[in-house]
From TrEMBL:
Pfam families documented for this protein: HTH_27
Residue span, HTH marR-type domain: 27-163
UniProt GO MF annotations: DNA binding
Stated name of the protein: Winged helix DNA-binding protein
Species whose genome carries this gene: Paracoccus aurantius
Domain of life: Bacteria
The entry's keywords: DNA-binding, Transcription, Transcription regulation
Length: 173
């Protein structure tokens, strides 16, 4: 019997979901998960503040304080960061000033514009939210949830989707 040479080994292509319907369904599922995660984040913040006996803030206001951090910004700058869609930023800022979590002053350059920054009470709220997030990050890290796939890869994918969405919005206008 003649000997035949073994056929060359071909690399196995990386496993990917079938294009079209499966990918579209996965994308739609991802959007639903993202929406649920956003609501759960607000619930987590609400529960934390209830546990601390702080019922004067909504989760949106607490997250606004957290994201404001040590910056001094205008309402327009907060809106342009793409956060707080669906919430009335001006109303929430006024409420946070009235509650003593933010201070405000007119801009020197544009007297129509008001800049806001955290007061010590606002910094305390920010620290509460930061502590909550640090505890969650530690728990997720210990459980291995952040490892497969690595959270850095997941974030890279979300940033790509964010960039795609921004391009779509710019294309419309």
């Amino acid at each position: 019997m003649p000997q035949t040479s073994p056929s060359p080994v071909r690399p196995v292509p990386a496993l990917r979901p079938a294009p079209s319907v499966a990918r579209a369904d996965a994308y739609l599922e991802s959007l639903q998960i993202l929406e649920r995660l956003h609501r759960l984040l607000q619930d987590l913040v609400k529960d934390e503040f209830e546990r601390l006996g702080r019922t004067d803030l909504t989760p949106v206001q607490a997250l606004l304080i957290y994201n404001l951090g040590s910056y001094e910004v205008t309402a327009g700058e907060l809106r342009s960061r793409g956060m707080y869609q669906g919430s009335n930023v001006s109303y929430n800022l006024k409420k946070l000033v009235d509650l003593g979590y933010l201070s405000h002053e007119r801009c020197d350059m544009d007297r129509r514009s008001v800049r806001v920054k955290l007061t010590p009470a606002g910094q305390e709220v920010r620290d509460n939210v930061a502590g909550l997030f640090a505890r969650h990050a530690q728990g997720l890290d210990l459980s291995g949830v952040l490892d497969d796939p690595a959270i850095e890869i997941v974030n890279l994918q979300w940033r790509r989707i964010e960039r795609f969405w921004l391009e779509q919005i710019r294309y419309i206008y």
